[in-house]
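tool_call: predict_structure(chain=1)
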Amino acid sequence: MIKFIKKLIIKIFLLIYKHHFIRAHLSLAYKMKKNISIDKNIITKEVIKSYKNKWGKLDSKPNSIYFQLYSSLRGEIDINYVPDDLYRYKIEKILNNAIYHSFFENKNLYELRLPDYKDLFPEAIFRKINGVFYDKEYHFIYNINSFINSISDNEIVVKKALETGGGLDVYLFKKCLQSGNYYRDDGMDLIQFLNFSKDIIIQKKVCQCQFMNNINPSSINTIRVVTYKSVDNNKVYIMQMLIKKGKFGSFVDNRTSGGSFIEVKKDGKINNYSIDKYGIKYPFYMNDYNLPLYDKIKSLAIDIAEKDFINRQLSYDLFIDDNMNIRIMEINYSISPAIQGVCGPAFGRFTDEVIEYCNKESGSFVFDIPY
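tool_result:
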């Protein structure tokens, strides 16, 4: 009887979980629809039928709204566009094993997990791991107040180390020269803030190259690179690349805070427009449209992905510092499906192999069941 109840609870939870994803992604899709003109003369009923037949292998009722939006936004008809909810709810859970995500995504463990690349991450000042304070070398801090008073930086960056996304929970704290304490723009004291989370990383503020400063000087504009490790040959491929352009005056570069995405094309040239969260295009002008260090950026992403034996799709946020070095801001294991509207279908020529693989494999979920 107990086993039956547990299975019932899990089944109910999964249904709620799936419903949540469907509603969340549809809500954004309908907001985008207000800004994107869908050409019914091109996207005909026959085309939509072909699209649903393709994705019907993974979902009995695939929603074509995403296909229509992204095809219209990019001016290309391609039935390889993955439905957003299907991407997040099923495909992502099969390609990436969520059981490991708390370890892989913990920003406090990057340097330990990837020692060959530890110097590429923003320099840590100190950390809070599972409620305990450590310095950048993972030595226990006995007195956190004294440690903070010893920091010489005028500005520091504070991030939650777990359960973050979309640039949320990233803050700039500035030192008060009179008191020596650090404060956020809203007056929040650093010590007070540290009490709100068990897992936080405090880093030195980084500086970006002039090319990225020209895009937006107030934020560190990162380069989103999405890789895919083929389920057929186990080779890693670059699937998408874009620049996350922050809103002018904003410290972060995410679209939730008013930023936008600029496509980086297969030849390393960046597009002449950006797209915001709601599908609105903004003209974008630069003297040079060639992304610096393009080939090296691809190589770095592929190198790290080849060493990952758990996850088949990674989403990097890289940046180029003021010394023209490629650095790593973070590595994500949950994908933003909407970037298909910026860079095209998620898996391109690998779409059929992904569908076939996900059709016969089961995914992984991590959640707490009360008992």
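agent: The first helix runs from residue 2 to 33. Proceeding to next step.
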